[in-house]
Amino acid sequence: MKARVYVTFKRGVLDPQGKTICTSLHRLGYREVTDVRMGKYLEVTLGGLPRQEAEQRLRSMCEKLLANTVIEEFRFEIQEE
Amino acid sequence: MKARVYVTFKRGVLDPQGKTICTSLHRLGYREVTDVRMGKYLEVTLGGLPRQEAEQRLRSMCEKLLANTVIEEFRFEIQEE
Amino acid sequence: MSGEGRGEDREPEVTPELAQQHGLTREEYERAVDRLGRAPSYTELGILSVMWSEHCSYKSSRAHLKNLPTEGPHILVGPGENAGVVDLGSGVVAVFKMESHNHPSFVEPYQGAATGVGGILRDIFTMGARPIASLDSLRFGSPDHPRTRFLVDGVVAGIAGYGNSVGVPTVGGEIAFHPSYNGNILVNVFTLGIARREKIHRGAATGEGNPVLYVGSHTGRDGIHGASLLASSEFDAESESKRPTVQVGDPFTEKLLLEACLEVMKEPGLVVGIQDMGAAGLTCSTVEMAARGGSGMEIELDRVPLREEGMTPYEIMLSESQERMLLVATPQSEARVRQVFEKWDLQAEVVGRVVPGDRVRVRSGGRVVADMPAALLVDEAPRYRRPSERPKWQEEMERLQIESIPEPSDGTEALQALLASPNLGSRESIYQTYDHMVRTNTVVRPGSDAAVIRLKGTNQALSLAVDCNARYCFLDPEQGARLAVAEAARNLACSGAAPVGTTDCLNFGNPERPEIMWQFERAIAGIAGACSALEAPIVGGNVSFYNETEGRAIHPTPTIAMVGLLDDVGGAMAQWFQSEGDLIFLLGDPAGSLAASEYMALLHGREAGRPAAVDLDRERAVQDAVRRAIGSGLVESAHDCSDGGLAFALLECCISGPLGSVGAEIRLEPAGRLDALLFGEAPSRIIVSAPAENRARLEHVASAAGVPILPLGKVGGPRLTITVGSGAVVDLDAAEARDAWLRALPRLLKG
Amino acid sequence: MRFGIVIFPGSNCDHDVYHVAKHVLGQEAAFLWHKNVSFSGIDCIVLPGGFAHGDYLRGGAIARFSPIMKAIEAFAERGGLVFGICNGFQVLAEAGLLPGALVRNAGLRYVCRDVYVRSERQDTPYTSRIKQGTVLKIPIGHGEGCYFAPEAVLKQLEEKRQVVFRYCDAGGQVTTEANPNGSLRAIAGVCNERGNVLGMMPHPDRCAESLLGNDQGRRIFDSMIHSWQQIRRNRI
Ligand SMILES: Nc1ncnc2c1ncn2[C@@H]1O[C@H](COP(=O)(O)OP(=O)(O)O)[C@@H](O)[C@H]1O
Ligand SMILES: [Mg+2]
């Protein structure tokens, strides 16, 4: 099965990349954009596990490695095909 | 409204980060992981536009700036609240 | 046997037409068929087309490169190997080379530049040397061209991203802007490594039965040459997945590869031969290693680690996936070699053997998919003496009526315009994004004429500089090339070093055009003459042709990188003034020429006239003089007086120091036009500063070398003032000038 | 004194630190491979600069799981000196041996140049020879050196005086212009409560010899040696 992991900065952590992208979008004329937040997106493929277990495993992967919980928060979706 | 933009490497393009993350997940004992692809995730907030127009604008933002279409492909979802 | 093996059914039949699509001429194709005694298989066609391509075969340039001086007292290995080797005495050798990655960097600036760095690094450590310094020489279109900023940002970030990560400092380089690069930028990267003399390895496959190992990253469809795109149009089914993909650099894997390779090469007897898989990957490395070793080689494609599904032999042989090496071990050493690569988490697979004979035989799925004499692909590759003809435009260009150019009454404004210009503004904003200190050898950092790196464990240091004024080369290719060599050597001399070797990167247009071939021939002649006169032999280099868009070629750009040696690292010199009260002198003749000058191009929009010719005896004398002055501790700074002329060089001496600016009071004798006096350009001129008490000895050193020495003035105060006769012609605040100079590039490249 | 210099895959400044310890300071030095699960006879562990595991994902994120890190934690527990420079600081932060995190420079670019830092306290093993308030010129070379910690943590750091170095100008003033990466409270280096673990982004190993134009970084290493000798004397 495939999982999509989203890692984003916690509120309060500055996101200079997002800011810069936002200003360049304005420069390019996309004035309607009011805010950009930059994050990481990971597609993780895992060998068949019962969904519940997979969720547990993914959570611990995120807490351990994929996200630094001092500055980041994570979210994931599991989708079997 | 808010849009979520996902930028990933095109198929076949080497993804050194994904590869390295995958091997370290193995070392950490997550043997069930068979592949990791690393990508970017952007949350773009834009001032109210008719949905259709918003889609057009977002597509052109991705092509112009958010994604490097030589090696990356993009996807986005719009969600009004 | 055509098209057997993996994916045979899908492999198109080879016809003269298909060969042409692969860039082989009819004659070339027939020649191959004759030699093989049959039509090549599809895989063989792919191999032929890359090995006989301009890039790999040097078919248009080989005949002319022969004219370059490649011998010298220090030279251990000249052109032909992966990089040149120079003996520094003291048991240490320097290994260096320069490579271009122009086209990939235009397509994808970050990855193109990054993989360019990766490639040249492998060229160096494949010789058994540890890379310790890089230089980058960059050319972009005009700053206001819509694509320029994107390209600059990408290229600079790519060089930083890769070089910094691998831990090789980028200690210098050059960057220039000109419209002729609007559609074709230049990214040339130089790397230098050092090794103990006895640890040098070659890229030769010898010893029948020896195992051939593939080490490093897996093979994907990266950068398979355009021809395969044409060919792949036949498999509509997966044509999408078959499209050649842009190479992405993996600096981390490169770093592991670097350490692992140096470790196996350190242990005596483990490695017979080794070569990186650069252009034309597995093909080029197998064929060249076999040819160099005078042996045959058998390769088993089923053993090659693959990253993607269903790759054909053609694709595997032509893939340009990065961070891979081919290595010949011995049956006894094989296990140990694997062990070392495992330690570094790298895969090492035996993919073949060295065999008797002279053929490279490639198997896949138990079938032979290619079987060709190595010599056919290397030594017997086509060679051309392409027609050359002096371009019509040359006449036109050389004409310049100075009288038609209004003479300024005051030099201050012009000087301010120059210091804020794209080509003369400070490069700090670029080299600060490069780690130029890692390895803690950088004695003179970027920002001076030449970078100086000490050699730990010795008292020696190496000096590095890269130069090319493409405007000079366009207006007079032979003189321009000569001037580039002279400037590189002068840059080294200003740091206190004497040249030991040179590498070049010859960037030109389409060699099938006689005008381009003429530029190339002239440039080679210029380099050859200057390198012999200055005793800086060529140890290797690179030719990049077809730098054109819509039939419009770039300015001819023969980039020259030179390496110099200082026997006493303590004597390393920088370009900026050091102490208030020091006297300022010019070594050489003050006369400069407005022809071909930056001043004319920038302020009068004219690129015309012939650049001032360099008298190589005088050039030598001036360089000897400054070296002697530095060697005997007489001077506190030395700066090459080049782009922007005397006034701009003086300004640089005032404002380019790391600790801020200092002023100077300069007096010049009136001589012809004011702008020529201030901004005229000429070789063989060096500005030095020295304590008053050294004056007599300094003047003696100059006259002993037969070099004119002219007192210019004195260091000190907050302002740079230049007085000609009785009138002040330049007067500006050094600190303000420094600010404007530092802000120039960032400002010009702001979106 | 015997320095143990850890080599992670992707470490770049391991040899630089070795050179300083051995050839500049005349101390003993040994390399420690990251796969080792233990080490002995080491008086000070140095995690050098570089790009461990390519800094892929986050600087130090993968390296913190190297087998040797457990032994280093235990060593720190026992009060051993653990010094993280640049990438080494990132590893220590990721490993939780030091508070906070190092994120992308505010300017988004990698920056290699000299900066000034002010030494905030003398009572650590790393600053024992450096008077509080002393300004040192030390080069940086990083793209992810912006120090971040939640407000609460920052308060604690200040209370417990764990901020050892702050970016400042040549005169010792802490200003926005003098902050090269946007670090909160201009933090260039922090230690743990006990003071035996230090992480800093600037590179003292790059300025420990006058030949390189600057030997001010040497004062940090001299302090370490001095403190270590003190401790030993007290033991005897
Ligand atoms: N692209 C670059 N990368 C690194 N350093 C650079 C680059 N361009 C220029 N520099 C450095 O900036 C200084 C000025 O460059 P340049 O004007 O070419 O010097 P010169 O005219 O003496 O050859 C030199 O120290 C050079 O190494
Ligand atoms: Mg130059």
Greatest interface (CB-CB under 8 A), with counts per chain = A-B, 32 and 32 residues
Oligomer: heterotetramer
Biggest sheet record of chain A? 3 strands, antiparallel
**Which residues of chain C form runs of ≥5 with pLDDT under 50?**
1-8, 226-242
Would you report the number of β strands of chain A?
3
Apparent shape of chain C = globular
**What kind of sheet is the major sheet of chain C?**
7 strands, mixed
Give me the side-by-side strand order of the main sheet of chain A. 2-1-3
Helix content of chain C: 25-40%
Coarse structural class of chain C: alpha+beta
Mean pLDDT of chain A: 93
Radius of gyration of chain C: 27 Å
Radius of gyration of chain A: 16 Å
Termini distance of chain C?
57 Å
The averaged pLDDT of chain C comes out at 93
Number of discrete helical segments of chain C:
27
Q: Helix coverage percent of residues of chain A?
A: 25-40%
Distance between the termini of chain A: 7 Å
Biggest sheet strand order of chain C reads: 8-10-7-11-9-12-13
Provide a descriptive summary of the structure in words.
Helices cover 35% and strands 37% of the residues of chain A. Chain A is of the alpha+beta class. Chain A has a 3-stranded antiparallel beta sheet with strand order 2-1-3. Chain C is α+β, with helices and mostly antiparallel strands and 751 residues long. Chain C starts with 15 loop residues before the first helix and ends with a helix. In chain C, the strands form 5 sheets. Chain C has a 7-stranded mixed beta sheet with strand order 8-10-7-11-9-12-13. Chain C has a 7-stranded mixed beta sheet with strand order 23-25-22-26-24-27-28. A 6-stranded mixed beta sheet of chain C has the order 1-2-3-6-4-5. Chain C has 27 helices and 28 strands. Chain C is globular, with a radius of gyration of 27 Å. Mean pLDDT of chain C is 93; it is low at 1-8 and 226-242. In chain C, α7 runs parallel beside α8 and α7 runs parallel beside α11. In chain D, the strands form 2 sheets. Chain D has a 9-stranded mixed beta sheet with strand order 2-1-3-4-11-10-9-6-7, sandwiched between helices. In chain D, strands 5-8 form a two-stranded antiparallel sheet. In chain D, 59% of the residues are buried. In chain D, β3 (44-47), α2 and β4 (81-85) form a beta-alpha-beta unit. Chain D is globular and about 45 Å long. Chain D is of the alpha/beta class and 236 residues long. Classes of the chains: A alpha+beta (81), C alpha+beta (751), D alpha/beta (236). Chain A binds chain B through residues 6-8, 18, 21, 24-25, 28, 30, 32-47, 49, 54, 57, 61, 64-66, and chain B through 6-8, 18, 21, 24-25, 28, 30, 32-47, 49, 54, 57, 61, 64-66. β2 of chain A pairs antiparallel with β2 of chain B.
